Every structure is written in C-alpha cells, then in structure tokens.
C-alpha cells in the first residue's frame, strides 16, 4: 500500500516537472493578472529620441542599446499608453529586455505594423522558450505578450519587418515567484521512487 502511494506521489511530481518545463505563453490585451512591478516609462522622463539602455536599472530593467524614448506619448495602440520605447531609426532587430532578477512570468505591451514577431525567453543567454505570432497595432484582442511558468532573465523580440513600440512592462519579484529548476524536481522525484523500491525490498 505504501509502495503504491509513493509511486503515485512520484508520478504526480513528475507531471509537475513536465508542466513547469512547458511555458505558458501570454498573448492577450491586459498582460499579467497581477504583478509586483509595472514600468510605464513615466517613472523617469527623458527628451525625445534619447537612447535608453541602463537608465531604468534601478527599477529592475535594462535594454539593448539603441532603443529610443518617445516623449510625446500615445494611447491609440493596445498595450501602449503614455511614454514608450521604440526600436526605430535605425531599427534595432532583435532587441532585448533584461531583468535584474530571474523571473517566472513577465509581459509587456507591444505595437507593430502587421507582421510576425518572435518572442524568445532566455536564462543566462540560453534559450528557454520561444513563440512566434502575428502582431499589429490595431488588434484590440491582444497587445500584451510574454511568458509564465518558466525561469528566465531576458525576453528577446525579433520582428520580420519594421519597427516596434514597447510599454507597460509587468514583472514580479523573483523571491515571491521562484520556481525550482525542472532538473532539481526530477532528481527529487527519482529519489522518492528509489526510496520506495528500497523499502519494498526490505519488506
């Protein structure tokens, strides 16, 4: 009876490992259901076309150098409101959002010309998850994109044509959302199964 219970527990844990290993993709018109931090680019204001890279580091974010600050602001695109960053003139492609701490979920507003955009989640420079989807500045059913359920410290955005605008970057404090590495959980699950087999032999 105990052996069956331990096997069931180990199997359940392995299923959890598999679910954590598969990222949840965020494609909607609101982003995260809740977040500790939202960077709107109104926190620190710059002159128009200022190149932004490390200026928001104290708030937990840095960017690929070359993105430019828009001082006029806009609320006409889903996901974009007030000030924002753009990868225009020259187009920076791909560009990345770097998080000071490891994240398990993050989302941000993105507006582009109608095109296909690829989103890559990376941890220490290694690709963790990726997806491509159609993006547009005129699709009211979406406008926020991101990842949840995996560990990453960078989101890379690659567009196949033209420039992109980003705004309202949402993310959580890693201390409150930390998820064990899938490999760690897998080792733990194997340990439980080994313990069950050892006890069964003794009986």
UniProtKB/TrEMBL annotation:
Which keywords describe this protein according to UniProt?
A: Signal
Q: Ranges for the Ice-binding protein C-terminal domain?
A: 178-199
Signal peptide range: 1-23
Entry protein name: PEP-CTERM sorting domain-containing protein
Q: Name the species this protein comes from.
A: Cognaticolwellia beringensis
């Amino acid at each position: 009876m105990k052996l069956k219970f331990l096997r069931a527990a180990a199997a359940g844990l392995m299923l959890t490992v598999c679910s954590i290993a598969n990222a949840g993709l965020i494609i909607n018109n609101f982003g995260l259901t809740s977040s500790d931090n939202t960077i709107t680019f109104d926190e620190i204001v710059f002159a128009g076309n200022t190149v932004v890279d490390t200026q928001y580091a104290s708030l937990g974010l840095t960017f690929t150098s070359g993105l430019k600050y828009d001082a006029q602001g806009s609320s006409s695109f889903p996901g974009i409101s007030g000030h924002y960053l753009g990868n225009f003139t020259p187009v920076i492609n791909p560009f990345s959002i770097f998080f000071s701490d490891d994240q398990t979920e993050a989302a941000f507003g993105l507006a582009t010309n109608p095109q296909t955009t690829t989103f890559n989640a990376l941890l220490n420079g290694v690709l963790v998850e990726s997806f491509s989807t159609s993006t547009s500045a005129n699709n009211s059913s979406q406008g926020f994109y991101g990842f949840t359920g995996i560990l990453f410290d960078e989101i890379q955005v690659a567009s196949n044509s033209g420039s992109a605008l980003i705004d309202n970057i949402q993310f959580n404090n890693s201390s409150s959302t930390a998820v064990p590495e899938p490999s760690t959980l897998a080792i733990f699950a194997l340990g439980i199964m080994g313990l069950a087999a050892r006890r069964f032999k003794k009986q």
